[in-house]
Structure formats: structure tokens, C-alpha cells
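May I ask for an example protein's residues together with how it folds?

___
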Amino acid sequence: MRIAELSLIAFGPFEDEVLRFGEEPGLDLVYGPNEAGKSTALRAITGLFYGIPERTPDAHRHPTARLRIGARLSCASGELEVVRRKGRKGTLFDGGGVAIDEARLERMLAGVSQSMFLSMFGVDHVVRRTERATQRRLARVIAESRESSDIGHALMIPISRRAVK
């Protein structure tokens, strides 16, 4: 599955902000200075996929009941526009505001649990704990993987064993 667009309709400090991701297969990296919204975007994607937690730090600008996250998702079986609202039941809608079954989104997630998603795709916590030199090495690994189009392979090769160009 691929996220084509992430819409922060009313989430955290954002209102009607849209992040557009590349249409080509590959890795999209969200980066920016401190307090730019990177962690908020990660929480938004997680909330979109798995539901906004009952206790969320992202209801400081918007009332809890008005929190909304949207996205345009695509996979081999097609495209899906979704909007997630904060709540306990019936929180997922299509782009037209019609309630949709969670199973449609779950099929696109292909069995990826929330904990797996965060550990595999949410590297926010990893990067925050690393020193600057490690961050530069991670950036180099990502750049090298773009050339080989295999980030999994590039990340699994220990940095000390990889040839430096």
C-alpha cells in the first residue's frame, strides 16, 4: 500500500494541511526542523490506520470530537480515499462522508499491526535517540538505497562492512 496524500484536516496544530507523497514506488522521507510536525504526521498516519487513541496529545487546537485525518491510499487492488474521526465506533468514512467498513482499510494494511507499523515504518523514535553522526550515516544509507531501490537490504548491511564511495 502507498499513501499518495495525507490530509491533516483537524489534527494537532494543523488545519487543512495536505502532505503529498511521490507517485513512484520507493521511499518517502518526511524531515524538517524541530517542531515542524514530523511526529504529528506519524501520529496522524497511525491514527488513520488504527484509530485515534482515546487520550491523544493532538486535541490541543481542535476539540477532541472534531479531530479528522484523511488520506488517499493506493495498492494493487485500487485506490481508497478515507477520513478518520476521533471516536469509539464508526470512525472511518470514504471521501464522500459515507461510513465504510474497517475491513476495507485492514485489507490494504495486509495484516500489519500497529506495533509492527511503528517499528518498521515509524523510525521517528530511532532517529531521535541517535547522535548526529549516526543520523548522517542513516541519510547516506537511504541515499544509497535509492540507487539500488532496496532500502531493506541497505539497512541490514552493517555500516562498518559497507564500502564507502
